[in-house]
Design brief:
It contains eleven helices and six strands. The protein has 219 residues and is of the alpha/beta class. It has two domains: 125 residues, Rossmann fold (3-Layer(aba) Sandwich), CATH 3.40.50.2300; 72 residues, Arc Repressor Mutant, subunit A. β5, α5 and β6 form a beta-alpha-beta unit. α3 runs parallel beside α4, α8 crosses α11 and α9 crosses α10. The protein is globular.
Amino acid sequence: MQPIKVILVDDHEIIRDGIRALLKGAIGIEIAGEAENGQEAIDILEQGEVDLVLMDISMPVMDGIDATNYISQNYPAVKVIVLSMHDDESHIINMLKAGAVGYIFKNTGKIKLIEAIKTVSSGESFFAKEASQRIMEHFMQHKATEKRNGSVEDVKRLTEREKEVLRLIAEEYTNQEIADKLFLSPRTIDTHRRNLLQKLNVKNTAGLVKVAIKCGLLD
């Protein structure tokens, strides 16, 4: 099995040194390059195969938001996980809109960092608890005015199983955890996830969480 090739993007060398040290020896993960800003990260992407980018936000030349937006449009197969100290709603939501599929903080330990990389690489999203809370607060604040996608009527047309899977996704369970909980295979859960994206007309997990909150599927 090929290792997950990761680029570290941060304008502070000491941070990159620390991340590199945490990932040293991690099975299935390979540091493919390092960059001090978003433009350098894009230059690396143009030179060779990369699977995932650990992206800081506040950087000179090109910040993490612009770089993530460029990557999501031009390298859609490359996953972006934000690794930042910013825990405010604005930065988190802007990075999600730019295309990031993960958001963790710089005080994250080795185990969670590796878990985030492997989870996102497998096609799922990964958000630190604080980031998930900010996302949910944002959607709660805007649910009254959001009427385009994932309406109550759309949710009513879901099967009971699909509603259950949607609720568990919104509660941050992974595909494997949902499969274990419902006594189904991970492949079946992945099929439910894809069907939910199509039926609710949303693009990603964040969209599914938004619908679940708006339609009152969470306690």
